[in-house]
């Protein structure tokens, strides 16, 4: 099955991808605790970047409120665990359809009434902000006081309850990122993927050709929201605390979309490369400033802004399309 999904990929690109995956799989063997934490953060943003890329990169629908689905997924699984002792994987079975349903609701509001472009982006921000304010006053999830998951010291990793060493979370996110990448490639090579690309390039022309643009845009929103719910569940059980201001804030949505923009919107490898570049360099900057005893409020956000500006000016397609051409790897952008 994996061989079929990789069919048509340039040999050099496939070899490079295999080497990268092998290196990442072996990383916990030599990485210290801090480096492991950074790698977990990188994989988290690589995964959610892929989920967001389905909406914007493949179907051309700009979402600026994707933290909505992270927060809903996180709070659903965490609240079920705290109040009823329900494990995170069962909680995931509730979080995924909930986020898919909310995504379908947002998509229906937008696409049925022809809300597109910047107005669709504003709608996604508004819904995320509505959720932030709502959860801030929801007693069942402890409101603004925060929802805290019980933490215990485990002699071994408990995969079923997601309790254990960060290495366990690392391999979960590594597997999720790899599966998401293969899934996105399969989607792009399917009929749905070709319809998405037609809608992205010219929706009116796609509609004139008989493509049900409403239906296929809804499919993109639902898949993207459902995928993002998984990231929310992992986020909740890795950090063990949730605050509405933290998980639903628009800055979290911006962090999600920066990786794909810097790496290359609409490409398969762009969100992963963008996450490595942005998160890796930002953490190096934070560490260097801390070592020098320098405290600059908002330094990471300023760095993100500089990187984004540099890429837009110098490499408007993103880093990956430029890099793949230089290395002769071919393009994974349809």
Topology:
Elements: H1 2-6, H2 11-26, H3 33-58, H4 67-84, H5 88-112, H6 118-136, E1 147-148, H7 166-188, H8 191-201, H9 203-208, H10 213-239, E2 241-242, H11 244-247, H12 250-263, H13 270-291, H14 299-314, H15 319-327
Antiparallel strand pairs: 1-2
Helix pairs in contact: 3-7, 3-10, 3-12, 3-13, 4-5, 4-6, 4-10, 5-10, 7-10, 8-10, 12-13, 13-14
Summarize the structure in words.
This protein is mainly alpha-helical and 334 residues long. The chain has a domain at 32-249. 72% of the residues lie in helices and 1% in strands. It has a two-stranded antiparallel sheet.
| Number of alpha- plus pi-helical segments | 15
Q: Level of helix content? A: over 70%
Order of helices and strands: HHHHHHEHHHHEHHHHH
Strand content: under 5%
User: What does the average pLDDT come to?
Assistant: 90
Output the structural class. mainly alpha
Radius of gyration of CA atoms, rounded to a whole number: 20 Å
Compute the separation of the termini in Å.
21 Å
List how many beta strands DSSP finds: 2
Shape: globular
Biggest β-sheet, characterized? 2 strands, antiparallel
Strand order in the sheet with the most strands: 1-2
Uncertain parts: none
